[in-house]
Specification:
There is one protein chain. By secondary structure, this protein is α/β, with parallel strands linked by helices. It has 4 domains: 87 residues, no CATH class; 66 residues; 170 residues, Rossmann fold (3-Layer(aba) Sandwich), CATH 3.40.50.300; 186 residues, P-loop containing nucleotide triphosphate hydrolases (Rossmann fold), CATH 3.40.50.300. Helices cover 37% and strands 21% of the residues. It is built from 23 helices and 25 strands. Strands 12-13-11-16-17-10-18 form a 7-stranded parallel β-sheet. A hairpin with a 4-residue loop joins strand 1 and strand 2. The longest helix has 14 residues. The protein is globular and about 75 Å long. The chain starts with 5 loop residues before the first strand and ends with a helix. The mean pLDDT is 86.
Length: 548
């Protein structure tokens, strides 16, 4: 028995003792091949999954290195079955390789003819392949490169993509010092370097940690025309401001492709909504993808990729791709699609680690439990199953508590966030605060956000349009009144609106107002899981006690 910080278990989970002197060293060593599941105060738990092991192989790690790491830091002997499973899982990666053949173009090659024979028999894989060239090689339709990788990972035979990338059209740009001395932080440089070395992949950093800077640094390395995909026009314009501030790019070199503008420039920022819009059954946005010889494609908030973009992205496998996200969590379980179509995870940094370095604000999370009135309880109890959550989440009894929380935080910039428009309209009227929702024009959104930043407005009521990519560093309090059912991703993104560092150095406060004795509390517990895994603890208080 060693005195290591790690306990490795036969169910592929690992426990890390946080207070152990070697804990930080062990955490960094296992990060390439283990997924953090929970990070409470004293013991962090990790899981070794096939996807994590294939990520590690794609990043250049082999089974021997993984086993050596586990042996070095494990307190107890490692179960033999786990070691064998790691070796066999990692050996699956690379048995199939996508390469460029001098005579036949894109081909799938295998050093194991039995594996090739197995995948050729799969109903969804066979149509993606062309003629058999020899016993070990089969032609691949170039347009099916992405879809083929998707299907192969589903059957447990991930392909190593060595077919390379087209260079794309050159477009010079440099990082700029116009706004005073600045440089990418160490971890931003490491993230960009890791993504560049791998050609394509995903960078995971917490909200407020500067993912945009990672993208800009990657662009400076590429020196190519770049397509940036974002989830809203407001987010796209934030990207544009950052590019103008931090690079030598000019206004004329940056185009906006949104519902309001259709500009194609050497650097083009397009919204997912426009990209996925169909006209007479056809994705017109393919013209955007074909309009320039892009050298780099950046996917902001890559965890949000809608299904149509997955399909379109499958056709862009010859371009370098960078995905940026704070939460590589999808409620539909399609993380594997992100791995195959964008690339493996190249860099990840725990939220609390970034907070400890002072790059994001600390946050206190509080679940405030409200008792519904008798009428509300009866309406909830007798509602149809699909209506029950709406009934309790939008209860009028929450309104007084929201107002009380805002009164307690008077003088702070506050966000009230919810999912149901009727509830948000009611709260906006009661609080005499502006409401930003889906129908709010881009111009009005930008005006209200700017007034909030300047302090002309102290409270904003926002729908889920403000969940993502909105830079409001002045926001220090958020009150969540309703959400999208059990979405862990949404909970994390909403807390993320508060994590930009505060000038006064104070902590941010995230309140979630929940109806007691209803499905609202069940969903709240599930929503909090990702943040609990990152080390955030929720304090549960009674609404009446909070407002005393």
């Amino acid at each position: 028995m060693n005195d290591g910080p790690l306990i490795v278990q036969s169910d592929n989970t690992m426990l890390l003792e946080v207070d152990h002197p070697l804990a930080d060293e062990a955490r960094q060593a296992i990060a390439p091949f283990a997924e953090l599941e929970r990070a409470p105060e004293h013991i962090h738990s990790y899981r070794i999954t096939p996807l994590a092991l294939w990520n590690a192989r794609a990043a250049g790690h082999d089974a021997e290195q993984v086993v050596d790491t586990l042996v070095r830091y494990s307190r107890f002997p490692i179960p033999q079955s786990l070691l064998i499973g790691i070796a066999e899982t990692m050996e699956r990666y690379g048995r199939l390789q996508l390469i460029k053949h001098p005579a036949h173009g894109l081909v799938l090659e295998s050093n194991d003819s039995a594996v090739l024979a197995e995948i050729l028999r799969h109903r969804k894989i066979a149509p993606l392949l062309g003629n058999r060239i020899d016993a070990d090689t089969v032609a691949v339709h170039p347009s099916e490169r992405g879809r083929l990788k998707q299907e192969l990972i589903k059957v447990g035979w991930p392909a190593e993509d060595l077919a390379g990338y087209v260079d794309g059209e050159s477009h010079p740009m440099e990082l700029s010092q116009k706004e005073g001395e600045w440089a990418p932080r160490d971890y931003q440089e490491w993230a960009a370097d890791a993504a560049w070395a791998g050609g394509s992949g995903v960078v995971v950093l917490p909200c407020g940690a500067g993912k945009t800077v990672v993208g800009i640094t990657m662009m400076a390395k590429a020196q190519k025309t770049t397509l940036i995909l974002v989830n809203s026009t407001v987010a796209g314009r934030q990207w544009k401001r950052e590019l103008l501030q931090r690079t030598t790019l000019t206004e004329d070199e940056i185009g906006e492709y949104s519902g309001e503008k259709k500009e194609i420039r050497p650097v083009t920022i397009a919204t997912y909504q426009v990209v996925t819009r169909k006209t007479r059954g056809v994705y017109k946005s393919m013209e955007l993808f074909d309009s320039r010889d892009w050298g780099l494609i950046i996917y902001d908030e890559v965890h949000l990729l809608p299904a149509p973009v997955f399909r379109l992205t499958a056709d862009l496998q010859s371009r370098r791709r960078l995905g940026l996200t704070a939460t590589l969590v999808r409620e539909d379980g399609r993380e594997g699609d992100v791995f195959t179509l964008i690339g493996p995870k190249r860099f990840d940094m725990p939220w609390r680690e970034v907070e400890a370095q002072g790059w994001i604000a600390s946050a206190e999370c509080t679940e405030v439990r409200v008792t519904l009135s008798e009428d509300e309880r009866m309406a909830y109890a007798t509602a149809e199953r699909e209506e029950m959550y709406r009934r309790c989440a939008t209860a009028v009894s929450k309104d007084r508590i929201v107002a009380g929380i805002l009164e307690q935080n008077k003088g702070q910039r506050c966000l009230v966030i919810g999912a149901y428009l009727d509830q948000l309209e009611r709260l906006a009227n009661k609080l005499d605060a502006p409401l930003i929702q889906g129908s709010t024009s881009t111009k009005e959104r930008e005006r209200l956000f700017e007034a909030f930043r300047n302090g002309d407005i102290s409270t904003l009521v926002v729908s889920k349009v403000a969940n993502f990519s909105i830079d409001l560093p002045e926001a220090s309090v958020a009150v969540q009144v309703s959400g999208t059912y059990r979405s862990r991703q949404e909970e994390a993104q909403r807390l993320g609106r508060l994590l930009r560092p505060k000038q006064d150095g104070k902590a941010a406060h995230f309140y979630s107002v929940v109806a007691r004795d209803t499905i609202d509390t069940t969903y709240a517990a599930y929503r909090q899981r990702f943040l609990a895994e990152q080390g955030y603890a929720y304090r549960i208080v009674d609404a009446e006690d909070l407002l005393k």
